[in-house]
């Protein structure tokens, strides 16, 4: 699959993750989705202040991650970015088999993974504004035009075979 995987993280992400990696007591994997993944894995400009993750492996590390790097953490205050544990996203069955590490070898204890196809990189939230919905639809449209085969597979898995084009404001590619 064509991606523009960014081997180096830009600021403030590099400093944030470097400090988090040092602060972690044991290794942990993050299964990430959202704007951060879109910007890093697919090269789309998607400004965001959070890294949405749907799972931490092992799961009991969620509390430590929230304390170290959650919205109200010292790292978040310092770097103006944070980790966000997402509990409202529904992933396809066996999504774990399609995860790819975003920055292999970059960190000692922290491993950041994302779906290898845009299965559910964006999820609707209850506080999402109309403007943000419009921006995400635009991002999805660009993503679907650049990788239509993978986008179609992902959207069918996420929304069903007939409703996905309407969900992103476009006709089927």
Explain how this protein is built.
The protein is an alpha/beta fold and 173 residues long. The protein has a domain at 13-127. Helix content is 38%, strand content 16%. It contains seven helices and five strands, in the order αβαβααβββααα. It has helices at 13-23, 35-42, 62-69, 74-79, 130-146, 148-159, 164-167; strands at 28-33, 50-57, 82-85, 99-101, 110-115. The chain has a five-stranded mixed sheet. The model is unreliable at 1-6, 119-130 and 156-165 (pLDDT under 50).
**Which spans of ≥5 residues are poorly predicted at pLDDT below 50?**
1-6, 119-130, 156-165
Strand proportion, as a percent range, falls in 15-25%
Globally, the shape reads globular
Q: What structural class do helix, strand and pairing data support?
A: alpha/beta
Which strand order do you get reading across the main beta sheet?
A: 3-2-1-5-4
Offer a concise description of the structure:
The chain is of the alpha/beta class and 173 residues long. It has seven helices and five strands. Strand 4 (99-101) and strand 5 (110-115) form a beta hairpin.
Secondary structure blueprint with pairings:
Layout: H1 13-23, E1 28-33, H2 35-42, E2 50-57, H3 62-69, H4 74-79, E3 82-85, E4 99-101, E5 110-115, H5 130-146, H6 148-159, H7 164-167
Parallel strand pairs: 1-5, 2-3
Antiparallel strand pairs: 1-2, 4-5
Helix pairs in contact: 5-6
Task: List the main descriptive attributes of the protein structure presented here.
16% strand, disordered N terminus, alpha/beta, 5 strands
């Amino acid at each position: 699959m064509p991606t523009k995987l960014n081997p180096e993280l830009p600021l403030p992400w590099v400093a944030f993750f470097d400090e988090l990696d040092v602060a972690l007591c044991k290794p942990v994997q993050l299964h990430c989705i959202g704007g951060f993944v879109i910007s890093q894995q697919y090269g789309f400009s998607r400004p965001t202040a959070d890294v949405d993750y749907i799972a931490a492996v092992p799961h009991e590390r969620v509390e430590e991650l929230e304390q170290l790097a959650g919205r109200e953490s010292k790292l978040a205050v310092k770097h103006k970015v944070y980790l966000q544990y997402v509990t409202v996203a529904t992933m396809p069955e066996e999504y774990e088999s399609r995860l790819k590490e975003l920055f292999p070898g970059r960190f000692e204890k922290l491993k950041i993974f994302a779906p290898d196809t845009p299965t559910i990189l964006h999820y609707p939230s209850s506080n999402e504004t109309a403007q943000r919905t419009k921006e995400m639809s635009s991002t999805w449209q660009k993503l679907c035009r650049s990788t239509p085969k993978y986008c179609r597979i992902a959207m069918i898995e996420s929304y069903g075979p007939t409703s996905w084009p309407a969900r992103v404001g476009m006709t089927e590619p």
